[in-house]
Write a structure and sequence with these properties.
globular, Rossmann fold, alpha/beta, binds cytidine-5'-monophosphate, binds magnesium ion, 213 residues, 5 strands
């Protein structure tokens, strides 16, 4: 009998999900993904990789051929071509595993578009689940404008925020919905305070992954 596999391309992912744990962390801009990831890192020893942070670092890296492309996409709230982001994530995972031995990853702000999801699971590593932070737009906008006072981010302004929300609804929510249809989404209401959201996060992850996730 031929081996059965979800991977129809014949590509073997770089990392086996039996060895490496990947949780995708999604939610609209300002939903609190980074805040919650910091707490999970503190208590459960995940490595936190933010796709947005990796893109901003690549944008600023002297000699990067993608600097201007990334800068334009971020300013306009558009999705950077997936090859760039998938490669940055794979490199960061490999470096983390090689230098620290850590094999548990929170991949924050990714996948934001269906092609990123498919490519990553095909060539890098199938994800265990999607942790989705659900937050009303008005609350996210309030948080982003507040953060914009000190973040120095080129996209924490009213115009970029509007574009980021549109991309989230049109391009990123379909990714969450697709994973949800597969029963792979853990949804957390992100409206409350960070402490309250974190308590709910731990509870739901325990339900999905067991006590010592
Ligand atoms: O997650 P964060 O808000 O830091 O992302 C900032 C920007 O980086 C996004 O608005 C988008 O332009 C880009 N990005 C992307 N693909 C991702 C994550 C971020 O293109 N998976
Ligand atoms: Mg973030």
């Amino acid at each position: 009998m031929p081996p059965t596999t979800a991977n129809t391309s014949g590509t073997t992912p770089a990392f086996s999900p039996a060895d490496v744990t990947v949780l995708f962390v999604l939610g609209g801009p300002g939903a609190g993904k980074g805040t919650q990831c910091s707490r999970l890192v503190r208590d459960y020893h995940f490595k936190h990789l933010s796709a947005g942070d990796l893109l901003r670092a690549e944008q600023d890296r002297p000699g990067s051929q993608y600097g201007q492309l990334i800068r334009d996409c971020i300013k306009n709230g558009e999705i950077v071509p997936m090859e760039v982001t998938v490669a940055l994530l794979e490199n960061a995972m490999r470096e983390t595993i090689d230098t620290t031995g850590t094999k548990k990853f929170l991949i924050d702000g990714f996948p934001r578009k269906m092609d990123q999801a498919v490519k990553f699971e095909e060539v890098v590593c199938p994800a265990r689940l999607v942790l989705f932070y659900d937050c009303p737009e008005a609350e996210m906008e309030r948080r982003l404008l507040e953060r914009g006072k000190t973040s120095g981010r080129a996209d924490d302004n009213a115009e970029s925020i509007r574009k980021r929300f549109r991309t989230f609804v049109e391009t990123s929510m379909p990714v969450v919905d697709a994973y949800d249809r597969e029963g792979r989404v853990v949804k957390v209401d992100a409206t409350a305070t960070p402490d309250q959201v974190y308590a709910a996060t731990k509870e739901k992850l325990k339900q999905a992954l067991g006590d010592k996730f």
